Amino acid sequence: MAITMLAIHLASAQTDKKAFQQNPWTLVYEGAITENIVGKVNIHPVAYKLNGIDITANVYTPANYDASKKYPAVVVAHPNGGIKEQTAGLYAQRLAEAGYITIAADAAYQGASGGTPRHVDKPTNRIEDIHGMADFITHYAGVDANSLGVLGICGGGGYTLKAAQSDKRFKAVATLSMFNSGEVRRNGFQNSQINTIQERLNKASAARAQEMAGGEMIYAGVASITDAEIAKTTTDLYREGFVYYFRTHAHPNSTFLYTMSSLLDLMTWDATTNMDLINQPLLMIAGSKADTKYMTDEAFPKATNAKYKELFLLKGATHIETYWKPEYVSQAVQKLTDFFGKNLQ
What we know:
Blueprint lengths: L1 H15 L25 E9 L2 E9 L9 E7 L9 H11 L3 E5 L17 H15 L5 E11 L1 H12 L3 E7 L4 H7 L9 H16 L6 E4 L4 H6 L3 H13 L7 E4 L3 H4 L15 E6 L5 H7 L9 E6 L6 H4 L1 H18 L2
Parallel strand pairs: 3-4, 3-5, 5-6, 6-9, 9-10
Antiparallel strand pairs: 1-2, 2-4, 7-8
Helix pairs in contact: 1-8, 3-4
């Protein structure tokens, strides 16, 4: 059945993968806004500086938005390799439909945001991106700065946990399919590379030395992939992720590459350290069938001082299915709406 569904996805990919060209804001998710209509949810491309780097973002405003009124707001942090036009935008739009002003920004050094070298993927930068979205949106017309929430998806979820530990502007904290980037880069997915930690640290060290000497930038990750290679991928996360990012929801700004030297920072970092500093209400959502669920299971018990916390499972969902599959997205959005509604008063 899994192979059959994969074949269906790949067969339709040729028409789906250029969806960004058909949308005025290059949004590639199902149900994306195609025009701003008075009285409906609208999208507003914005730009701002963060530590001297140009950041591009989309702000979504609710139906019948009135800048003279006050609205709760939610910051949405995108997955590793993702951008604002994919699942982060989908959830930002759906939360705007529920009455929130939302923002989804491309991380510095990634997507349409500035910063060189390209595809740097360091935890400090990603956490600062979340703080930066809060900086911008709390001064946006109509936003109630005292009613600010944050939603982090996949890698953005791990960085959201860390950002919320110190940034108490976030009054409610939620994650979807949380991915602990440091743990996975260090130990391998599902702890499959523990025996090669020192070898990979040596490679990252050599890559940095080469960069500093003016040599060629070395990248880790995947630049492109064939259908046959996708079909042979054994883990749901990566097989379905390749389909999502390279086929059905492909966008030229999205990439599976990151600088090898980023591992120096990633491999010594962990999303779940100091979880006791989260004293805000916390909601963690994961698919019951997700092969990444172990990361949510590891983080959740460590939030010992959360004002309120809940682990909500999307029954039958894999990690990537929570990004796009309507039945799971609707369940997640309903849960998020209830959670933010109770905690952003």
